[in-house]
Design the sequence.
């Protein structure tokens, strides 16, 4: 099983937990945010030393309140590649509509080649209008009728952008003429003629994988059709089993072969390992509550199950007990957490790709490094 570790890259905070302050009332200095960026390099090195296979970053913009302060996971990943030897490096996720696809393709290929083939291309559509719209795109939600048009445009742009990226990666020369991207544009003069084709420089010199977030029914239909990996996170355990199986069915229908157990699907779980279950609850609670204070208003909790068995309404702010019951969080001793992961593996029919999210917003990086080492020493050998 391939094991990954996922960090948001947040500023250290001394007031995490439920209640005030309102997230957007915080404002951190450039020095505090840059310190978090530097410590994230330390976390990548520690992840390799702890025995993980992939270090996952994230891409976000303009977050002065300090939750996710790395805007360019590819640039960061190139630096991390110089400080490590073995671990793969990727982002959950590079937000494709916020890039020109050819710049994303160039930058990923550069990082991938510099690292000796350790880059992993994680792609997503984005969730936060404050980030997306200044960068020239739109975000919506399939379950929010008021944003249906923004959602449609976002999905179309994303689909075309991935077409461009794959064409650029896989062909010595390419051209793409779609609704949003016309590459090369007609009539570009060059040495007595006009440009008819482009060549990406550099292209990936090594094999690469593409993983996409699966967070809505339309995306559940889309990702297996495209043939790349699906990432499943923050979903009730019963919903997880249903979506995991449905992904496999759709993949087989589209590609004419059944996936191996766990193939092309990644499970992401939030975990906390401590000496006892009770201590793990104490250690996890404030970070859990800060996590949902930040993300709940963006609708991330719609993967939880409501009392009627249907998806929870967007905006739910769950308690730690809710998250444990939904099996989105698994906390306790290393044995407790390993048992919870094994239960998932049995219900899903096998795991090939597991990513752990062990560091909650605002936690000190020295404590994060200790927790990472503990997971490597105590939990990974049990998986």
Sequence:
């Amino acid at each position: 099983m391939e094991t990954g570790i996922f960090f948001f890259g947040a500023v250290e905070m001394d007031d995490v937990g439920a209640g005030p302050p309102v997230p957007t009332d915080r404002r951190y200095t450039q020095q505090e945010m840059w310190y978090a960026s530097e410590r994230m390099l330390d976390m990548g090195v520690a992840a390799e030393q702890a025995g993980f296979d992939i270090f996952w970053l994230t891409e976000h913009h303009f977050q002065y309140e300090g939750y996710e302060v790395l805007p360019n996971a590819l640039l960061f990943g190139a630096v991390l590649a110089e400080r490590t030897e073995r671990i793969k490096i990727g982002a959950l996720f590079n937000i494709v509509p916020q890039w020109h696809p050819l710049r994303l393709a160039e930058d990923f290929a550069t990082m991938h080649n510099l690292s000796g083939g350790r880059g992993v291309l994680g792609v997503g559509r984005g969730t936060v209008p404050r980030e997306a719209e200044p960068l020239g795109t739109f975000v919506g939600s399939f379950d929010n009728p008021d944003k249906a048009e923004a959602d449609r445009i976002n999905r179309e742009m994303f689909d075309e952008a991935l077409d461009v990226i794959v064409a650029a990666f896989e062909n010595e020369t390419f051209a793409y003429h779609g609704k949003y991207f016309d590459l090369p544009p007609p009539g570009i003069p060059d040495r007595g003629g006009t440009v008819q084709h482009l060549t990406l420089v550099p292209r990936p010199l090594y094999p690469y994988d593409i993983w996409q977030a699966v967070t809505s029914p339309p995306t559940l239909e889309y990702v297996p059709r495209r043939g790349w990996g699906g990432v499943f996170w923050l979903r009730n355990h019963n919903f997880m089993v249903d979506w995991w199986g449905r992904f496999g069915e759709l993949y087989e229908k589209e590609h004419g072969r059944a996936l191996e157990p766990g193939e092309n699907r990644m499970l992401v779980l939030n975990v906390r390992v401590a000496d006892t279950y009770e201590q793990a609850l104490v250690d996890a609670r404030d970070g859990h509550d800060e996590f949902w204070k930040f993300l709940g208003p963006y609708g991330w909790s719609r993967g939880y199950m409501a009392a009627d068995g249907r998806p929870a309404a967007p905006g739910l702010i769950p308690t730690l007990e809710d998250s444990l019951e939904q099996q989105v969080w698994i906390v306790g001793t290393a044995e407790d957490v390993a048992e919870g992961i094994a239960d998932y593996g049995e219900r899903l029919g096998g795991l090939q790709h597991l990513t752990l999210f062990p560091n909650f917003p605002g936690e000190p990086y020295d404590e994060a490094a200790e927790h990472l080492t503990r997971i490597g020493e105590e939990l990974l050998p049990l998986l």
Q: What stands out?
A: The chain has a mean pLDDT of 94.
